[in-house]
Automatic annotation (TrEMBL):
Pfam entry (one): Gram_pos_anchor
NCBIfam families, per database record: LPXTG_anchor (TIGR01167)
Organism expressing this protein natively: Asanoa ferruginea
Signal peptide: 1-34
Residues annotated as transmembrane: 326-346
Protein name, UniProt field: LPXTG-motif cell wall-anchored protein
Residue intervals of the Gram-positive cocci surface proteins LPxTG domain: 316-349
Keywords per UniProt: Cell wall, Membrane, Peptidoglycan-anchor, Secreted, Signal, Transmembrane, Transmembrane helix
InterPro entries to which the protein is assigned, alphabetical: LPXTG_anchor
Length: 355
């Protein structure tokens, strides 16, 4: 039986953005204007970085709405401006949603797009608005170095080291990985410049190692791999009708890409190309005793058994090629096993997705 590694059993926490106060007037349209979210942001410099204080208000003074979509560019998360949040009717600056996005000095702009929904007099109303804010005029200069870490679903971490625009000398650095005796990379960054991206490969075990960036014997940044926003484990859905067994795989936006083969105990196998951010489906003709086994390369996952739903007429019986003891019949627990198994196998095989 396939076992899920310990790391996949633990939910990965996603840190929420800090909420800060913002004293800014929100200019709303006339009562006749269309329902829409009002998105605005103010940029400011912080030591070594810059930030945007975002505000999302409601165009309507008498009707609350719901947030149905949020996109931060570059990617970010928020505990307040998020899908499912209530967009309160606008009664003043206290009746708005606020959040803060922190950005690296190499990033020159940030965009927030918000989708919202209202229900007025039985009619559904949807609208999308966005705003883009640029780095403060003249840029945000600093004498301190900055390091960015970008995680992907393979377990790799991409590191970029930047030297401050007001630094007085070149920045010499080394990248160390916990458990390694020697640096995996080193270099020199000119004043106001950034290094080329450096990929730190995933560790072999379940627990990602700590990555440290050191300059002249002093640690300037550290990081441990975390699951990218949107997750890495594919969602599996199994639909069983009187005539068919259908299996749908939905891969997260940052998920791994790989070929997934479904082999039935009778009939021809089908190959599904699992691509990031996409949903794919295979369908098999139902028959008594049908069992379909998913596999990635030579590694097999839990088999999926078709079970005749109630109310169906008799289904022709096909010769059984083997016992289906332990086969998954589409229960939620079984689907989690398959999804986690797909991710674990694909990651172990070091299958990479294209950017």
């Amino acid at each position: 039986m396939f076992h899920i590694p310990t790391a996949l059993r633990r939910p990965l926490a996603v840190a929420g953005a800090a909420v800060v106060g913002l004293a800014a007037a929100v200019v709303l349209g006339s009562p006749a204007s269309a329902h829409h979210p009002v998105v605005s942001g103010t940029a400011s410099c912080v030591e070594g970085k810059w930030q945007v204080d975002w505000t999302v208000a409601n165009s309507e003074k008498d009707l609350a709405g719901d947030i149905t979509g949020v996109t931060f560019t570059p990617t970010a998360t928020s505990d307040t401006v998020k899908v499912g949040a209530v967009l309160p009717a606008y009664t003043g600056n206290d009746a708005v949603l606020k959040t803060t996005q922190t950005l690296d000095i190499a990033t020159t702009s940030a965009t927030l797009s918000v989708d919202a929904h209202w229900l007025r007099n039985g009619k559904n109303i949807n609208a999308t608005k966005s705003a883009t804010v640029t780095v403060p005029r003249g840029g945000c200069k600093t004498s301190k170095p900055a390091v960015t870490f970008t995680d992907d679903c393979t377990g790799d971490v991409t590191v970029v080291v930047s030297n401050g625009a007001e630094a007085t000398k070149k920045l010499r650095y080394e990248i160390l990985v916990e458990g390694s005796e020697k640096p995996i990379a080193s270099g020199v960054v000119e004043i106001g410049k950034s290094s080329e991206p450096i990929v730190v490969p995933a560790g072999e075990g379940d627990n990602p190692p700590k990555i440290s960036v050191v300059s002249r014997g002093k640690e300037i940044a550290s990081h441990t791999w975390t699951e990218p926003e949107g997750g890495c484990v594919p969602d599996i859905a199994i639909e069983q009708t009187c005539d068919e067994l259908s299996i749908t795989v939905t891969n997260p936006p940052n998920g791994l890409e790989f070929d997934l083969v479904f082999t039935p105990n009778t009939g021809a196998a089908q190959t599904m190309k699992v691509e990031k951010g996409k949903t794919s489906k295979v369908t098999f003709e139902a028959s008594e005793g049908l069992v379909v086994t998913p596999s990635v390369g030579e590694e097999k996952l839990e088999p999926i058994a078709w079970t005749q739903p109630d109310g169906c007429e008799d289904t022709p019986t096909l010769p059984k090629t083997g016992a289906n003891t332990g086969a998954i019949a589409g229960g939620a627990g079984g689907l989690l096993v398959i999804g986690a198994g797909l991710f674990f196998i694909a990651r172990r095989r070091r299958l990479r997705f294209t950017a």
